[in-house]
């Protein structure tokens, strides 16, 4: 079945920048840029995509993947995830950035990593995990 072979099983809606959501883009953008300046030093532009609001129910996951790809996806440089769920509300669902980094689960914590790094979200075992994901763009990596 196509579904069971899918790299991803979760629900997502996209939240575009607007008057009511701009503060979130500004705030997360500021933190991500601070991390970029301190750690990566990538040439970054703007958020070119909305925020992805993701829900993983029991058994749902996002298999190993990269966030960069063909076309406009070449412009993704920095990926970021905010944990929206209380860690007491679910088990499993860890965001793992290969080879071995396991993102903190604390609600409100943000993990920022280069979009070319392979990562996955492990299957949720109990409860529901919500995340807010976005990408800062810039000139493609050379
Ligand atoms: O839900 C997450 O924390 C990460 C999801 C992800 O890797 C993606 O949407 O590209
Ligand atoms: Fe991803």
UniProtKB/TrEMBL annotation:
Keywords: Dioxygenase, Iron, Metal-binding, Oxidoreductase, Vitamin C. InterPro entries: Oxoglu/Fe-dep_dioxygenase_dom, Pro_4_hyd_alph, Pro_4_hyd_alph_FE2OG_OXY. Signal peptide: none annotated. GO terms for molecular function: dioxygenase activity; iron ion binding; L-ascorbic acid binding; oxidoreductase activity, acting on paired donors, with incorporation or reduction of molecular oxygen. Its cofactor is L-ascorbate. Its EC number is 1.14.11.-. It comes from the Bacteria. Residues 47-138 form the Fe2OG dioxygenase domain. This is 2OG-Fe(II) oxygenase. It comes from Aquincola agrisoli. The lineage of its organism: Bacteria, Pseudomonadati, Pseudomonadota, Betaproteobacteria, Burkholderiales.
């Amino acid at each position: 079945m196509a579904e069971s072979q899918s790299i991803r099983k979760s629900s997502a809606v996209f939240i575009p920048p607007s008057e009511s959501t701009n503060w979130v883009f500004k705030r997360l953008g500021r933190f991500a840029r601070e991390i970029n300046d301190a750690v990566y030093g990538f040439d970054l532009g703007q958020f070119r995509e909305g925020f992805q609001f993701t829900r993983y129910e029991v058994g749902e996951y996002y298999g190993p993947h990269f966030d960069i790809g063909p076309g406009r996806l070449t412009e993704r440089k920095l990926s970021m995830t905010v944990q929206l769920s209380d860690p007491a509300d679910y088990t499993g669902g860890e965001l793992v950035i290969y080879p071995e980094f396991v993102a903190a689960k604390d609600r409100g914590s943000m993990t920022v990593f280069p979009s070319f790094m392979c990562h996955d979200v492990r299957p949720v075992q109990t409860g529901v995990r919500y995340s807010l994901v976005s990408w800062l763009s810039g000139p493609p990596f050379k």
